[in-house]
């Protein structure tokens, strides 16, 4: 298999790391994620990851109950860092070089994100794990993924989700939901398709970054998707 993309950012929801659990981190799911990334990376694609934190904590939910949004978002960033460390430990077990860089400074735990540190790790062939969101409140992990993808020089944001592509509605709730093979960034924004936050889609559009959506539950699918195979939906500048 030959990759279509030479450099990608892989976005994983925090909920995906729960696997079969109702809360927290399922070690078997972490193993699958790392297996998939290691396999895809072996094909020659440079990969960075951004993971959400919803399996551990959601700052937005706390704020919805009347709590301070800024504090809630900072707590969410800490949850993301915990997930990133769990993934890095699995890479370490396999002898795969992986570097965690955090937008929220926690120097006792991992290095802070800087452009120079990112470029050094990227050019050394490390798998990069971007943690801590953007480091600022009011921005989601989707927006952080689009920002880091642009800084990383990624050609695509590959998003592993609970379904095998982009639909007009939740296919688990609406059996008549239409599945899209290809879309433009503008059409995603115009139709309000909730694959990512509008700000993330706009940032991807403005930097000519594709958004590819596939099911994270299919083992080995990441490698197939970056080679243009498998089942996925693709958002690009033109359909």
UniProtKB/TrEMBL annotation:
Family annotation (PANTHER family): URIDYLATE KINASE (PTHR42833), URIDYLATE KINASE PUMPKIN, CHLOROPLASTIC (PTHR42833:SF4)
Function according to Swiss-Prot or TrEMBL: Catalyzes the reversible phosphorylation of UMP to UDP.
Catalytic activities: UMP + ATP = UDP + ADP
Pathway(s) per entry: Pyrimidine metabolism; CTP biosynthesis via de novo pathway; UDP from UMP (UMPK route): step 1/1
Binding-site list for UMP: 53, 73, 134-141
Family: Belongs to the UMP kinase family.
MF terms in GO: UMP kinase activity
Residue positions binding ATP: 11-14, 54, 58, 161-162, 167, 170
Name of the protein in question: Uridylate kinase
Transmembrane spans: none
Means of activity regulation: Inhibited by UTP.
Superkingdom of the source species: Bacteria
Enzyme Commission number(s): 2.7.4.22
CDD domains on file: AAK_UMPK-PyrH-Ec
Subcellular localization: Cytoplasm
Residue intervals of the Aspartate/glutamate/uridylate kinase domain: 7-215
Predominant place of localization: cytoplasm
Keywords recorded for this protein, A-Z: ATP-binding, Cytoplasm, Kinase, Nucleotide-binding, Pyrimidine biosynthesis, Transferase
Claim: Transferase is one of the keywords in the record: yes
Subunit text: Homohexamer.
